[in-house]
């Protein structure tokens, strides 16, 4: 036996209207930080491979620089990116933009009366 479940709708048959969702405007500091760290990530991930032949000519402690960057340097860059992101985002969260820079939907509305 199949049981059908029907949604409760108003008499007009239309589904009830949901209130509009107002999203706050993104903080430009967050977007800038993400763009800069993403660029650094791209340079670290693809730059080492792209310049591998040139990096092999430079030696550090008897080993080619390409070896150092491929084995440990890029991993350390990735960890530094995560650390910088966490520290800066904590600062941004603790020091929000002033109310004048926030979108109107987030600002406090004066009491009606």
Automatic annotation (TrEMBL):
Ranges for the Sodium symporter small subunit domain? 31-94
Tell me where on the tree of life, at the top rank, the source sits: Bacteria
Q: Which UniProt keywords apply?
A: Membrane, Transmembrane, Transmembrane helix
One Pfam family it belongs to: DUF4212
Q: Which InterPro entries match?
A: Na_symporter_ssu
User: What NCBIfam families does the record tag this protein with?
Assistant: Na_symport_sm
Please report the name of this protein according to its UniProt entry. Answer: Putative solute:sodium symporter small subunit
Q: State the species of origin.
A: Giesbergeria anulus
């Amino acid at each position: 036996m199949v049981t059908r479940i029907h949604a409760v709708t108003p008499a007009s048959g239309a589904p009830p209207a949901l209130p509009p969702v107002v999203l706050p405007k993104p903080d430009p500091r967050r977007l800038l930080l993400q763009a800069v760290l993403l660029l650094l990530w791209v340079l670290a991930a693809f730059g080492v491979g792209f310049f591998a032949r040139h990096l092999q000519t430079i030696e550090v402690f008897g080993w080619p620089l390409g070896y150092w960057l491929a084995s440990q340097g890029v991993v350390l860059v990735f960890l530094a990116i995560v650390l910088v992101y966490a520290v800066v985002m904590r600062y941004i969260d603790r020091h929000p933009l002033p109310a004048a820079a926030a979108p109107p939907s987030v600002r406090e509305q004066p009491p009606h009366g």
